[in-house]
Write a structure and sequence with these properties.
Length: about 60
């Protein structure tokens, strides 16, 4: 799946899979400012540094507070 992005960031689809949530929940968290995202080469990606705190609590509702 990964071809040109560095390993310091994940796509929205990869982030959803890692957190065990739906892709739409990741998009919603980005829109609401609960999850930091960046644009790289025209694609929205989530830096690994933004994911590390969430990975310990991964599961349904991890992005909802």
């Amino acid at each position: 799946m990964r071809t040109s992005l560095s390993s310091s960031a994940h796509t929205i689809r990869e982030t959803a899979w890692l957190l065990g949530v739906d892709r739409s929940e990741v998009c919603r968290a980005i829109r609401l400012g609960k999850l930091h995202a960046e644009r790289r080469r025209g694609q929205t990606v989530i830096p690994v540094s933004a994911l590390l705190p969430l990975l310990s609590n991964a599961g349904p509702g991890v992005l909802r507070d």
